[in-house]
Design goal:
Layout (H helix, E strand, L loop, with lengths): L3 H13 L6 E6 L16 H15 L3 H9 L34 E6 L7 H6 E6 L4 E5 L6 H13 L7
Antiparallel strand pairs: 1-2, 3-4
């Protein structure tokens, strides 16, 4: 069981915990920022190959046409190409010279790995709720633990010293 000092310590940890340990809002480069001649840049050759195959299979049901599209015999602007190259990384900063995003990049919100939370972040974290539009990260209200501490400190300041009553 916690004593008064332990409760105050827990409240202080929650109130001072850094929410950035739980979730981050990142500005990442768009897919055109670092592509050759600002063409769409793929992460890897595998990502490109898989996406190209998906598009070709959705466009053509005939095997010969699929083969022709895969080999490049059929030119269609809907079929992705790898002119922008490979190597896209979300961790790079946006390119200020990018004509697509004007150097603004794209916003990404991500949740941190719950296995790596600090003790204070674990107290702040109140679970994950899966919703239709995505995942909601739930946190303790950091203002709630402060209220009782302020009241407690106010009472201590207002109370006359022992022996002075």
């Amino acid at each position: 069981m916690l004593d008064a000092e332990g409760i105050v310590n827990l409240w202080a940890q929650i109130a001072l915990a850094d929410p950035n340990e739980l979730t981050q809002h990142i500005i990442a480069p768009c897919r055109y920022c670092y592509g050759s001649d600002h063409q769409y840049q793929w992460k890897t050759e595998r990502e490109f190959t898989e996406r190209k195959a998906e598009v070709i299979f959705s466009m053509f049901s005939d095997g010969d046409l699929r083969d022709a599209a895969t080999s490049g015999t059929i030119a269609d602007p809907r079929i992705p190409d790898d002119a922008g190259g490979y190597g896209y990384r979300l961790t790079d900063p946006p390119n200020p010279a990018c004509p697509e995003c004007s150097g603004m990049g794209m916003e990404i919100t991500r949740m941190a790995d719950t296995r790596k939370f600090s003790p204070a972040a674990r107290l702040l974290f109140d679970g994950v709720k899966e919703t239709k539009p995505g995942v909601e990260i739930k946190m303790q209200d950091r203002a709630v633990p402060i209220s009782p501490q302020v009241r407690l400190l106010s009472l201590q300041v207002l109370a006359p010293p022992k022996g002075m009553a």
